[in-house]
Amino acid sequence: MPSDRSAVTLAVSTVVFALRPDPATGALTLWLPLVRRIREPYEGMWALPGGPLGEDEDLAASARRTLDVTTGLQPHYLEQLYCFGDVDRSPSQRVVSVVYWTLVRADEDASALERPGAENVEWFAADDVATHPGRLAFDHTTILAYALDRLRAKITYSPIAHAFLPAEFTLAELRAVYEGVLRRPLDPANFRRQILAQGTVEPTGGHREGTRHRPPALYRSNPARSRATLTIPADQEIPS
Amino acid sequence: MPSDRSAVTLAVSTVVFALRPDPATGALTLWLPLVRRIREPYEGMWALPGGPLGEDEDLAASARRTLDVTTGLQPHYLEQLYCFGDVDRSPSQRVVSVVYWTLVRADEDASALERPGAENVEWFAADDVATHPGRLAFDHTTILAYALDRLRAKITYSPIAHAFLPAEFTLAELRAVYEGVLRRPLDPANFRRQILAQGTVEPTGGHREGTRHRPPALYRSNPARSRATLTIPADQEIPS
């Protein structure tokens, strides 16, 4: 622990991921909000929502404040992603950014869309931005690519996909989340078998009404398996 | 990104884990080095090695510098663990700590032991310290407990255990690492079957010589499965 103040500025920024349907196909795609910079450095370019940490503000509180101001979002899922601190990541001064990420449910996204957006805030297709370096200020393209990698990795070994969904969902809705995040179709029967084998969801006993054929069963997160692959079973099996 | 400097000090600290054998039983236990504080706040108490981030220093470079100064360790495995930034975690000023962690091989640990230790640095049994709140300054007991939790979780779904071992190792040596980290015996036959099923190790073709019975086979990390559970196989299987 230091006794002197370091000459480093600390900022908190957030990568927001929402899954929005393609108007033509209905397939889900990852989108995120960006803020247009109105001063140097990088004036006119886009950046992740964020700002300097207030002296009396916890890290997550700072992320929530700038998210609310820029997008109106008050997301239920907010986690620390990584701390980025390379010496040369900001041209004019040394800035270390603690980056959070949030996954937005469709209903949260809809509320944010209804609200008049803050000036200089727009939503973009995440992979389009991540694959066009030079659109984002600072090292934010690197941060976005890292967040996409983490999401695509974590969805394969944790129930993080549930954060995009309401409390009750069908297996088809869950599969659509996986397909949107992973950007490829998954075999419905294989998907069903593997998700049920994981034990990360449990049937609610209810069904989705209002569909044409037989109503599909509803599921919810199984709280006992919220860290499914992180649990070592009592019989000393090491999950592969 | 901020245009003003925030009034927050940024520090970098490191949790170092080495596995040391119990003199009586030979069983491995997690140990870590701590630094005795020589000024207020928390004068006389123990803290993780660390200090304020230099303005021209990357985060990992800062962790490596303080580790070298305090313990002589220059570990090959160093990763960011988490950023701790609660408002009240330091009494006199606002400090945000980016915490790294490192896993030390026995040969690295032996080199550090041969070297005269820095004044006010001692090694402690990690779980003993973590379960006695009040021995560590600031929120370092919380940080240590978090690091232990992460290590015990991550060893079940990643090849992180290899970081404690030299490039070539027997399955019995690998099992001893798991047993030391998880603090309980594992069935040798089950362990062997599961590790080989994971595909995270591959035989070198060589054997450990100098043993009394038939020489055990040597293994090394399989680079193709360095992020074993993070890989989605081509057949669209979702790892459970």
Automatic annotation (TrEMBL), chains A, B:
Residues 197-225 are annotated as: Disordered. Pfam families: NUDIX (PF00293), WHD_NrtR (PF21906). InterPro entries: NUDIX_hydrolase-like_dom_sf (IPR015797), NUDIX_hydrolase_dom (IPR000086), WH-like_DNA-bd_sf (IPR036388), WH_DNA-bd_sf (IPR036390), WHD_NrtR (IPR054105). Residues 9-152 form the Nudix hydrolase domain. This is ADP-ribose pyrophosphatase YjhB (NUDIX family).
